[in-house]
Amino acid sequence: MKTQVAWTRSRRWLAFAALAVAAAGLLYWAYRPRPLVVDVASVDMGAFEQVIEEDGRLRLKERYVISAPTAAQLQRPKLKVGDTVRAGDVVASLRPVSPQMIDARAREVLRQRVGSADAARRAAAAQVQRQQTALAQAGLEADRALQLARDNFIAPSARDQAQLARQAAQQALEVAQAQQRAADFQWNEARAALGAAEPASGSATAGVWQLRSPVDGQVLRLHLDSDAPVSAGQPLLDVGNTSALEAVIDVLSSEAQRIAPGARVQLSFGSGSARRPGLVRRIEPVAFTKVSALGIEEQRVNVLVDLAPVDAAAAPAAAATPALGDGFRVDARITVSLQTSVLRVPSAALVRDGSGWRVWVLEAGHARARALTLHDRNADWAWVKDGLRQGEQVLLYPGTTITEAQPVKPR
């Protein structure tokens, strides 16, 4: 009986011990250190490039502004923005400016001026007739004196005086004729002024001037879209060839020094559109001040980029790019330097270590800190000089919670 009771107690203690061990094991399993789930990437060989990303705009390489050559009245334009024109097509018509309205007093003054000019013209005509009579008389006297001198009835000096008198009469006639012509001009001028002040009722002004397009292209802008008076030199419309475009990218003056003519550029014209290649043609030598979105004044320089022609057969996606125009926004990716095959690591794996850099390398399920030396880096990749080997895996975005030899598990 005692042996049976002892055996029952032993079994009870063994059950309690088993339950205790199971509970301890469950607690250990619940609170044991678990590997940290992380994102990893491999160190590989690939291309590394330094780029400058900025936005800009498109503009025409050649823009023509057609202006009024003189003060006139513009007829209502028949063209609209976007219409196609050919070189030599009429793009604007101008009528001479109508005379200004005057009051009765000014009109009467013009009429009296016509009468005064007519009287002066008549007086000049009479003076011409008088000088013609004087010339005829001087001619007769000179002929008579010449005959008498031949017969030795008068002295040679008297003959010379008669001939000089005839020359003086001829010159006086010429002066009178010039005065008559001047009087005729003044009379015609006075009549023209009076005629311009009193136009015929309902008559149209003649002499329409037609301005023609200098090149093949499209109408880009209408400065005036209705019948209106214009002054000399006033712009009327802009014409240009929208197929000949260039990109103007403004970059910081400190970054412009890294760009060389001929550098490759990738241009994007909006979400979903294919990128279009281009080449830097010129870096302008003059900077300008521009205020950034944060209110900071920046010195910027314009970089001119030529767009590469689209080959529909080689690049159907690029050929499907929608039509571009003057002033369109463009995003540019300018290549400063390019290495085709280098050892690289994602920039997301870099961690600052004083003045240098380090990464966390995945080794046998644990994170190990590794210092490394870089040639250069950009937003996506870092060009490794020393410290890593191709194929090793590094932790991305490690943060500050990773410790040496901490268990980690790739996601």
Q: Largest sheet, if any?
A: 6 strands, antiparallel, barrel
CATH topology of the largest domain: Elongation Factor Tu (Ef-tu), domain 3
Q: What oligomeric arrangement do these chains adopt?
A: single chain
Assign the structural class, choosing from mainly alpha, mainly beta, alpha/beta, alpha+beta, or little secondary structure: alpha+beta
Radius of gyration: 50 Å
Helix content: 25-40%
First-last Cα distance: 63 Å
Number of helices: 5
Weakly predicted, low-confidence segments: 200-205, 317-321
What percentage of the residues does DSSP assign to strands (E)? 35-45%
Write down the CATH class of the largest domain.
Mainly Beta
Q: What would you say the CATH architecture of the largest domain is?
A: Beta Barrel
| Strand ordering within the main sheet | 2-11-14-13-12-15
Fold and architecture overview:
Helix 2 (104-150) runs antiparallel to helix 3 (156-197). Strands 2-11-14-13-12-15 form a 6-stranded antiparallel barrel. The chain has a 4-stranded antiparallel beta sheet with strand order 3-10-8-5, with no helix packed on it. A 4-stranded antiparallel beta sheet has the order 7-6-4-9, with no helix packed on it. It has helices at 2-31, 104-150, 156-197, 253-256, 316-319, and strands spanning 36-42, 44-60, 63-67, 72-74, 84-85, 90-96, 209-212, 217-222, 228-230, 235-240, 245-252, 264-268, 276-291, 297-307, 329-346, 351-353, 356-363, 366-377, 381-386, 393-396, 408-410. Strand 17 and strand 18 (366-377) form a beta hairpin. The protein starts with a helix and ends with a strand. By secondary structure, the chain is α+β, with helices and mostly antiparallel strands. The chain is rod-shaped and about 200 Å long. Mean pLDDT is 83; it is low at 200-205 and 317-321. The chain has 3 domains: 46-58 and 244-410, Efflux pump adaptor protein, beta barrel domain (Elongation Factor Tu (Ef-tu), domain 3), CATH 2.40.30.170; 62-98 and 205-240, RNA polymerase II/Efflux pump adaptor protein, barrel-sandwich hybrid domain (OB fold (Dihydrolipoamide Acetyltransferase, E2P), Beta Barrel); 104-197, Helix Hairpins.
